[in-house]
């Protein structure tokens, strides 16, 4: 099911032997668009320390009670490496974290363990060049991972190929695959009261220094795209309508 990141903020995180805290934000990989970590505000339990919980530590989620169960103990989390979530999380930080929890890393030879066996990683996309490179190539070129905070990216301005259209207001993720499916754009400075969804595949590049997302579609395309109703869950019908709209306009070379 598709879910809003905004709606997941504040969910409780429960270890095998007690409550760890509340979800504060998420870190996603800007090449594969996978959710890699939940950032947990531990409150008074760990003197308001924020900790990273790897996605693979997630157990069963109680959506009705808004609780993420994790397959960790409170002592494991207490003794986890101290990582400043306000700064870039380096590959070295990740290595220490995965070593502490005895989790296999998700980078390296291009495979990661899963219930179905060894599954190849999704190819990484170079947002600056618009080309696809495999994980081993990226490992040689980038010493550190490309993890981005949903809290930080929220608010980035979105630019179509002929002008600004709004800003990032939310993210839509798949709660099964745990990947980022859509950016939700608030166009209130251009089209008051309207919100639309854009797919990561529409993104031409992201200027992280300028906090701007550039999408390879026109403002007219965004204006005519299906409006997103934030009060309703995302239905298959809406997704189909959105994808068909994109395909039809791309075929007509209007974007």
How would you explain this protein's 3D organization?
- The chain has helices spanning 5-8, 74-78, 91-101, 135-141, 150-153, 219-224, 236-251, and strands at residues 2-4, 12-15, 18-29, 35-41, 50-54, 58-62, 67-70, 111-114, 117-120, 124-126, 131-133, 147-149, 157-160, 163-174, 180-186, 195-198, 203-207, 212-215.
- It is an alpha+beta fold and 255 residues long.
- The protein folds into two domains: 1-150, PRC-barrel domain (SH3 type barrels, Roll); 154-251, Alpha-Beta Complex (Photosynthetic Reaction Center, Chain H, domain 2), CATH 3.90.50.
- The strands form four sheets. Strands 1, 13, 14, 15, 16, 17 and 18 form a seven-stranded mixed sheet that branches. Strands 2, 3, 4, 5, 6, 7 and 12 form a seven-stranded mixed sheet that branches. A two-stranded antiparallel sheet has the order 8-9.
- It starts with a strand and ends with a helix.
Identify the notable features of this structure and list them briefly.
255 residues, alpha+beta, SH3 type barrels, Photosynthetic Reaction Center, Chain H, domain 2, seven-stranded mixed beta sheet, 7 helices, elongated
Domain module tally: 2
Name of the CATH class of the largest domain: Mainly Beta
Output the CATH homologous superfamily of the largest domain: PRC-barrel domain
Could you give the distance between the termini? 29 Å
Query: How much of the residues is beta strand, in percent?
Result: 35-45%
């Amino acid at each position: 099911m598709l879910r809003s990141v905004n709606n997941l903020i504040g969910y409780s995180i429960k270890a095998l032997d007690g409550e760890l805290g509340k979800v504060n934000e998420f870190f996603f990989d800007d090449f594969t668009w996978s959710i890699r970590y939940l950032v947990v505000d531990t409150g008074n339990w760990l003197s308001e320390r924020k900790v990273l919980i790897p996605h693979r530590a997630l157990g069963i989620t109680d959506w009705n009670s808004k609780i993420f169960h994790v397959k960790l103990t409170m002592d494991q989390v207490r003794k986890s490496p101290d990582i400043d979530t306000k700064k870039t999380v380096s590959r070295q930080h990740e290595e220490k974290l995965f070593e502490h929890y005895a989790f296999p890393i998700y980078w390296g030879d291009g495979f990661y363990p899963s219930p179905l066996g060894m599954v190849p990683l999704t190819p990484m996309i170079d947002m600056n060049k618009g080309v696809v490179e495999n994980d081993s190539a990226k490992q040689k070129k980038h010493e550190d991972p490309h993890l981005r905070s949903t809290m930080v990216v929220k608010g980035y301005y979105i630019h179509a190929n002929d002008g600004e259209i709004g800003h990032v207001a939310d993210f839509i993720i798949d709660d099964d695959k745990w990947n980022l499916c859509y950016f939700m754009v608030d166009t209130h400075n251009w089209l008051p009261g309207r919100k639309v969804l854009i797919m990561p595949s529409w993104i031409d590049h992201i200027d992280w220094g300028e906090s701007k997302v550039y999408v390879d579609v026109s403002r007219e395309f965004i204006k005519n795209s299906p409006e997103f109703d934030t009060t309703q869950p995302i239905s298959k019908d809406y997704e189909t309508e959105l994808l068909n709209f994109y395909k039809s306009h791309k075929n007509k070379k209007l974007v």
